[in-house]
Input
Amino acid sequence: MNRPTVAMTVAGSDSGGGAGLQADLHTFAAFGVHGTTAVTAVTVQNTVGVTGVHEIPPQIVADQIASVVGDLRPTAVKTGMLASAPIIEAIATAFREHGIGRGGTIPLVVDPVCASMHGDPLLRADALAALRDLFALATVVTPNLDEAALLVGTRDQPDAARALLALGAEHALVKGGHGTGPRSRDLLTDGVTSWWLDAERIETGNTHGSGDTLAAAIAARLAGGDTLPDAVAVAKRYVTRAVATSYSVGAGHGPVGHPTADDPAGHPSPVAAAESTSAGAVAGAPS
Ligand SMILES: Nc1ncnc2c1ncn2[C@@H]1O[C@H](COP(=O)(O)OP(=O)(O)O)[C@@H](O)[C@H]1O
Ligand SMILES: Cc1ncc(COP(=O)(O)OP(=O)(O)O)c(N)n1
Output
């Protein structure tokens, strides 16, 4: 019997097809994973910006999670745009009920989406506290530098990672995509061991959906049984290839590409390919 690995995204729809649950499903497919969804919001969005948001009723979001978990049994879950505090609270209750996240058996990747790359809000301003509370369930939380500033008050990667762990996340992955300089460096830590995931910064304006793609790739690999550091190392390689194969479509920022994952089915131990260090051995590393 041929049963695929199943993952779920709890996220908003991007009508332009570059980010949100559309990017998540492209990524799951690239990893050979069957993707399922709980839709939180429908955005009116293209490559230029977001001009409308329609939130899904919180109970309908929770019901989608229950329906999918009860039947398709995803082995990892990822969150993206969550829109409002009532939606986040309904999701947190559903996650606890269904064993998703810390304390359960299904790993949870929380991508704390707050705004689009154009600055359009994707989370209500009064929902930041609810989002911070959700971190206590996260196997890993993956803010970009702007989200780190908004959520924990700093763009310094080690400081932000420490603050995210203090909020209860098992691992923090603070992305450096919005930084400057020739390298695109993300910091992963569990508070004891830290890894700098380093890649060249690719010159392109077409990075729409890069954060969703990274988080979905992590979830895809966790669903297949990888450890978190291994999943992040594979996902980082994947998103770098995704940015390298990005393309122009529409008048604004184009999306990242979704190349076939280099090793969708295998379970190597690629973390050695990333720069792996013990926290105490790295100046400025968290712990
Ligand atoms: N121009 C780029 N070149 C290479 N990697 C990039 C580039 N922009 C973003 N990344 C990588 O893409 C991933 C998503 O990061 P980021 O763009 O900061 O997230 P978000 O989409 O949430 O803003 C990270 O691994 C980051 O380092
Ligand atoms: C519906 C929806 N969800 C998430 C985003 C933001 O996606 P992200 O991958 O963080 O990408 P950028 O917009 O920063 O490229 C979105 N725009 N819409």
Observations:
- The radius of gyration is 17 Å.
- The beta strands are 6-14, 34-45, 50-55, 77-79, 108-110, 140-141, 171-174, 183-189, 193-200, 275-278.
- The first strand starts at residue 6 and ends at 14.
- Residues 76 and 236 are 18 Å apart (CA to CA).
